[in-house]
Amino acid sequence: MIYNIPYIAVVALILIGLYAVIFKRNLIKIVIGITLIESGVNLFLITLAFREGSIAPIYRGSGSNPLNMSLPVPHALTLTSIVIGVAVLALMLSLIIHIYKHYNTLDVSKIGREKE
Amino acid sequence: MNLIDDLIFHSPALIVAIPLLGAFLTPLVSKINDKLRNVFVIFIVFLTSFFVLLLANDIYSVCGKIHTYVFGGSAAVTQGGYAIRILFEVDGLNIFMALITTILAIAGVIYSWSFMKENTGLDKYYTLYLLMIAGMFGMILTGDMFNFFVFLEITSISSCALIAFWTNKGKAVDAGFKYIVVSATGALFVLFAIAILYGQYNALNMAVLASKIQFSFLDKIALVVLVTGLAMKAGIVPMHMWLPDAYGRAPSSVTLILVGVTQASLYGALRMIFTVYGNNLSNTLNQIGDVNIDLNLLLGIFIVALALLTIFIGVLMALKENNFKRMIAFAAVAEIGYMILAIGAALTTVFSTTDTGTGVMALKGGIFHILNDALDVGLLFLVAGAVYYATKETSLNRLGGLARNMKYTTIFFLIGLLAVSGMPPMNGFASKLIIYESTYQVNPILSIIAILCSILLLAVFVKVFHSAFLGPKQSRFDDVKEVPKSMLLAMGIIACIIIFIGLFPNLVIDNIVQPAVNALTNHSNYISNVIGGI
């Protein structure tokens, strides 16, 4: 049971994030929702790498047994995913700044509705 | 090994590396001279196209050949059976998509020369433009799941920034935000599915996954999440609401490439369904209540239903739209519906043993339509951009009588109109006819709806043609001139290809489309070629 808790957290994070993206009207909250989904996925990747009693995958001369280490590949994937996430986050926030300049509001229902 | 062989061998990597390097050199070149920068960007695109053609020549020379390029080693699988190396693989389908991307990239970059001339910040524009092209090529050529995700994100980030390029317009920024929300969510879905697959099979390589996949319950979840994520990016109803905004508000030269981006996502979905899951779709029974249904049939029917919805909603929304580019965008939604209609119809039959070629024919029509849709919709967007460039007007209510001043643009619009609604001399007819024929054999109602919507599409565009180009002379547009030569050249290139494909469809189907279909249906060839006898 105790080993299933991370997976429950993953699903909870993704569902909460999806809820925020779909139902929230404030742009910042939508962005928070996306970062929540992202954290959920990252947590999932990290959890996949874990095995009981494992150590970080770093060789320290003799005494370090590769079979004792957690998997390094998901760690690399998570790092890449975090970096991409930062880029997406920065882009979204900069767009929000522009939207706020144009409309003076962050409410989705009042954005982009003007006549041409 | 002589030079040409070397170049062909390394070309999958070069096709992605050249635009990527060019993208970050562009701001530096831009410091010297603006004209030099434009020439430099066009040179980069042509150099990439050269490698694509070289590779295409190599792939098509031998039937069923798969070119595998492994980074940092010669074999895809290391000693001990770890498939951890990133690899690019090119078969008939990949090179088909790469050729489409090449045509769009060339036309787009030539079009940009005049179209974007009056804007500032063009060094950033061209940097993002090349990044987008590099990301698309990466998505198309890669044979690694995580690599696919990375290129997907590169493409979405750069295209989002380009959609919102005209930041002085509130609606453009709004469209960009919508796009990034949908595509970031979609990409995270894809990553989640990749993680599920990795957790079970300890592999990210598509071929290794395809050979190992067991089709457990988790795999089914992964399939649904993957296809949902990619469908979000491909703009399939009910996830289409970002598409009219993004297509309608972006600069026309960007919209042209965006059409390619949605199709690259569609390619991803095809690759996942047919290659990664292909082994198991055919022989898995799904129990619903007391009835056993073939899973491929279930998936096929679901996709066909989505496709019909997509076609219907696209056409109906296009009928009531007043904005020129948004209207074409809704037509583009409908066109995507035609592709997935063919793909869904193919899924219901292609794996069954009693199939007499219907599935393969439907698949052929669907894949051929990917090429035709990119050209037709792309040409219409370029024409809409040209009208905007000449008149600074987007609403169809205020346009009129433009044929007097812009005769070449009018001719190009007429070609695009006939092609997109599937009229006989153009390429749209060739692929739509195959789709009608094959879906008729699956179920006659499908083809009836498809033909009906095609006629409605014609009605939409005839209305536009009348209201924008015909009609009485308007004094406001007296000093409107024909658009500059580079824009005409870009439209001309696409129009020529449309007419060529329309006149010789068999040539294209036999030489380009058929290898792509073979690559999709023959997944065991894919597995054995990429990882070699596991």
List the helices and strands and how they pair.
The complex is a heterodimer of chains A (116) and B (534).
Chain A: H1 5-23, H2 27-49, H3 72-103
Chain B: H1 3-32, H2 34-61, E1 67-70, E2 87-90, H3 92-115, H4 122-141, H5 145-163, H6 170-201, H7 206-212, H8 217-234, H9 242-249, H10 252-276, H11 278-281, E3 285-288, E4 291-294, H12 295-320, H13 324-349, H14 358-391, H15 407-420, H16 427-442, H17 444-469, H18 485-503, H19 505-521, H20 523-531
Antiparallel strand pairs in B: 1-2, 3-4
Helix pairs in contact in B: 1-2, 1-4, 2-3, 3-4, 3-10, 3-14, 3-18, 3-19, 4-5, 4-10, 5-6, 5-10, 6-8, 6-9, 7-20, 8-10, 9-10, 9-13, 10-14, 12-13, 12-17, 13-14, 13-16, 13-17, 14-15, 14-16, 14-18, 14-19, 15-17, 15-18, 16-17, 16-18, 18-19
Descriptive report:
The complex is a heterodimer of chains A (116) and B (534). By secondary structure, chain A is mainly α. Chain A has a single domain, classed as Orthogonal Bundle (Helix Hairpins), CATH 1.10.287. Helices cover 64% and strands 0% of the residues of chain A. Chain A contains three helices and no strands. In chain A, helix 1 (5-23) runs antiparallel to helix 2 and helix 2 runs antiparallel to helix 3 (72-103). The N and C termini of chain A lie far apart (58 Å). The model of chain A has no long low-confidence stretch (mean pLDDT 89). Chain B is an all-alpha fold and 534 residues long. Chain B has a domain at 289-503. Helices cover 75% and strands 3% of the residues of chain B. Chain B contains 20 helices and four strands. Chain B has helices at 3-32, 34-61, 92-115, 122-141, 145-163, 170-201, 206-212, 217-234, 242-249, 252-276, 278-281, 295-320, 324-349, 358-391, 407-420, 427-442, 444-469, 485-503, 505-521, 523-531, and strands at residues 67-70, 87-90, 285-288, 291-294. In chain B, the strands form two sheets. A two-stranded antiparallel ribbon of chain B has the order 1-2. In chain B, strands 3-4 form a two-stranded antiparallel sheet. The mean pLDDT of chain B is 89. Chain A binds chain B through residues 14, 18, 21, 27, 30, 34, 37-38, 40-41, 44-45, 48, 73-74, 77, 80-81, 84, 87-88, 91-92, 95-96, 98-99, 102-103, 111-112, 114, 116, and chain B through 84, 146, 149-150, 153, 156-157, 160-161, 164, 167, 170-171, 173-177, 180-181, 184-185, 188, 191-192, 195, 198-199, 204, 245, 323, 394-395.
